[in-house]
């Protein structure tokens, strides 16, 4: 069964450093999403991406965050200058269209020290 | 008040029991999702609903748009069903409930 692949599975970074989280969505999917889940809290929407541009973003997705689809397969989330409070599990998801179910990646656990 | 409320927060059942998890929401939506989060953290999409009822194996999801309420039912529960079940509603973005932690004991 096709799956969404996220790398790395765990990343530790120093506060103030830039990190790039990588995702390979399912090949025929057109909509891409990033979510985060701070330990012990609920999942939060960050951003959705379609047709090479951001379609929606939440209040969390400020100027420190950016997304990119640099080639036909990867979908990346960049955090420019990480803060301690960015420590969380980050999930990528993709879907064929808005009316279809999502497929989630297994997540990247980001730890900012 | 949270836009998406789930109940119960925690649920313990014996193997074989019929389980119901509820979700109420306060915003207009175009779709509602039920997700399963495994102990390791991975998330699986179970259902996406905009009306009526869907069934997949032992899982049934229903939604009442007028009442802004959805239920997830598990028939003949099994220990492998132990997970956190999350309700999420979609309009222009996705809003998540806090999840229901289900433990099914053998």
Any chance you could write out the topology, listing elements then pairs?
The complex is a heterodimer of chains A (113) and B (106).
Chain A: E1 5-7, E2 10-13, E3 19-24, E4 31-37, E5 43-50, E6 53-57, E7 65-68, E8 75-79, E9 88-95, E10 103-104, E11 108-112
Parallel strand pairs in A: 2-11
Antiparallel strand pairs in A: 1-3, 3-8, 4-5, 4-9, 5-6, 7-8, 9-10, 9-11
Chain B: E1 4-7, E2 10-14, E3 19-25, E4 31-37, E5 43-49, E6 52-56, E7 59-64, E8 69-74, E9 83-90, E10 94-96, E11 100-105
Parallel strand pairs in B: 2-11
Antiparallel strand pairs in B: 1-3, 3-8, 4-5, 4-9, 6-7, 7-8, 9-10, 9-11
Q: What do you see in this structure?
A:
- The complex is a heterodimer of chains A (113) and B (106).
- Chain A is mostly beta strands.
- Helix content of chain A is 0%, strand content 50%.
- Chain A contains no helices and 11 strands.
- In chain A, the strands form 2 sheets. In chain A, strands 2, 4, 5, 6, 9, 10 and 11 form a 7-stranded mixed β-sheet that branches. Chain A has a 4-stranded antiparallel β-sheet with strand order 1-3-8-7, with no helix packed on it.
- Chain B is mainly beta.
- Chain B has no helices and 11 strands.
- The mean pLDDT of chain B is 94.
- Chains A and B meet through strand 4, strand 5, strand 9 and strand 10 of A and strand 4, strand 5, strand 9 and strand 10 of B.
């Amino acid at each position: 069964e096709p799956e969404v692949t996220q790398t790395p599975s765990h990343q530790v970074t120093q506060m103030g450093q830039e990190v790039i989280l990588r995702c390979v969505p399912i090949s025929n999917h057109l909509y891409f999403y990033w979510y985060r889940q701070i330990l012990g809290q609920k999942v939060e929407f960050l951003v959705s991406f379609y047709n090479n541009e951001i379609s929606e973003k939440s209040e969390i997705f400020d100027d420190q965050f950016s997304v990119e689809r640099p080639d036909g397969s990867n979908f990346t989330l960049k955090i420019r200058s990480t803060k301690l409070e960015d420590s969380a599990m980050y999930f990528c998801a993709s879907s064929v269209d808005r009316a279809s179910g999502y497929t989630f990646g297994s997540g990247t656990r980001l730890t900012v020290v | 008040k949270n836009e998406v409320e789930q109940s119960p927060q925690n649920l313990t059942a014996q193997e074989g029991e019929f389980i119901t998890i509820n979700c109420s929401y306060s915003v207009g939506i175009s779709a509602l999702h039920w997700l399963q989060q495994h102990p390791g953290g991975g998330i699986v999409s179970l259902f996406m609903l905009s009306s009526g009822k869907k069934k997949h194996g032992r899982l049934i999801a229903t939604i009442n748009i007028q009442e802004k309420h959805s239920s997830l039912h598990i028939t003949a529960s099994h220990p492998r069903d132990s997970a956190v079940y999350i309700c999420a509603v979609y309009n222009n973005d996705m809003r998540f409930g806090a999840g229901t932690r289900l433990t099914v004991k053998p």
